[in-house]
Design goal:
Elements lengths: L11 H10 L4 E5 L5 E2 L14 E5 L3 E10 L12 E8 L4 E6 L13 E4 L9 E3 L10
Antiparallel strand pairs: 1-2, 1-3, 4-5, 4-7, 5-6, 7-8
This protein binds zinc ion.
């Protein structure tokens, strides 16, 4: 006989419900070491503690990685090209998302400040935190 799997305090479904239905990014904080993360799991990825509490993640952060997708999946066919981004949120947590306003790699830079935008569209959508002047012509 096997033991039943323990239930995760935070799940992918809850994360998706957070940004799709509640216009917020849900994550968790480790009560043992304080790590804040958007990654769902049974235990803290840093210290292994199972004492996790839900935490609201910041809606702002900076881009730590990105690429321009010109051949997207079906859900984004009418949006290509766009930027697929990894964002380090203020206060902790990294999430992947997309930026329909960015159409080439000259329009975004590592470290750029961005803001989560609640949307009816799939995925976690970001936009520049404060729209600046258009990029200079090459
Ligand atoms: Zn921890």
């Amino acid at each position: 006989m096997t033991d039943p799997l323990p239930s995760a305090p935070h799940t992918i479904a809850e994360f998706v419900r957070g940004y799709e239905e509640e216009s917020r990014l849900r994550g968790f904080r480790c009560r043992s070491c304080g790590l804040v993360t958007a990654t769902w799991g049974l235990a803290c990825s840093r210290c292994g503690a199972r004492d996790l509490e839900e935490a609201a993640l910041a809606g702002t952060g900076r881009v730590v990685a990105f690429t321009i997708l010109s051949v997207p999946g079906d859900e984004f066919l009418n949006d290509a090209p766009y930027a697929y981004v990894v964002v380090e949120l203020d206060g902790g947590g990294r999430v992947t998302g997309w930026m329909p306003s960015v159409r080439s790699d000259s329009e975004l830079a590592l470290g750029a400040r961005v803001r989560f935008v609640p949307s009816y569209r799939p995925g976690v959508q970001f936009q520049p935190e404060s729209p600046g002047p258009p990029p200079a012509a090459p």
